[in-house]
Amino acid sequence: MTINMTLAHALTVSAFLLVPAAVNAATPSELRAGALKVLEPIPEKMTGGENDTPARVKLGRDLFFEKKLSANNTQSCNSCHAVDHNRGGVDNEPTSPGAFGKRGGRNSPTVLNAGFHVAQFWDGRAKTLEDQAKGPVLNPGEMAMPSEAAVIEKLKAEKKYVGAFKKAFPGESDPVTYDNFAKAVGSFERTLRTHDRFDDFLKGDNKALTATELKGLDTFLSIGCTT
Ligand code: HEC
Question: How many whole angstroms from 170 Cα to the centroid of ligand 1?
Answer without folding.
Answer: 28
